[in-house]
Predict the 3D structure of the following.
Amino acid sequence: MLEVKNVEVKYGAVPAIKDVSFHINRGQVVSMVGSNGAGKTSLIKSISGLNQITKGEIWFDGIRIDTLPAHQRIKYGISHIPEGRMVFDKLSVYDNLLLGAFVRENEKEIKESLEMVYEMFPILKERSTQKAGTMSGGQQQMLAIARGLMSTPKLVMLDEPSLGLSPALVTEVLEIIKKIKKEGLTILLVEQDVQDALELADYGYVLQNGVISTRGTGEELLSSDIVKKAYLGL
Ligand SMILES: Nc1ncnc2c1ncn2[C@@H]1O[C@H](COP(=O)(O)OP(=O)(O)OP(=O)(O)O)[C@@H](O)[C@H]1O
Ligand SMILES: [Mg+2]
């Protein structure tokens, strides 16, 4: 479904992503793990169109997308749930959700999506008129995920959704990711929380200094020496 081929992303003269290639099959959960500054966010942004790539190609559903503007990529079914939630603080929960549907026109279908996310996240229905900035960190993360589902994506990319959450909320976020997978969506999960991300993944990649250093099934990576030593402290 997604194919990233020999991609490079540079900030000025400095490359953050160097010759990265990987793919995601439809219906899979793929995890990309790596430490601070490894290039995880840079890579996700290059897929959603917030970063321009300087080399390589990105294909989605048989279409080359790396030259398309971000809003067009959303229309094709790519949703990016950003690091740090980025909800609109001063807007209500409801208005934040509607903004997630900005590329869509059919009012009836937008309403159906709203019902769907309210069912998945009852707290958002309860708090629909509350200003997003006054929600708790965990609630804001739920809102960010729900907003990302309002564009009816095929591929959902989550950038460190568990960052700063309590263990109980991390478990909740993982359950939600499983639910999203069950709905038939494809998921790219970018995480520093290596254990959880790889347990959940059908396939995983380790990103180090802008390069994919290791790849394999979640199980293979969790039992590999590199991951054990560098990320799990074993
Ligand atoms: N807009 C930018 N301008 C210049 N350098 C940048 C920019 N964005 C990221 N970088 C650099 O690119 C490298 C990769 O950053 P990136 O944010 O992609 O890492 P990350 O893996 O998401 O890290 P974290 O886990 O801390 O979020 C870092 O060295 C960072 O300083
Ligand atoms: Mg990041």
About this structure: The mean pLDDT is 94. Residues 11, 16, 34, 36-42, 83, 192 surround adenosine-5'-triphosphate (ligand 1) (CB under 6 Å).
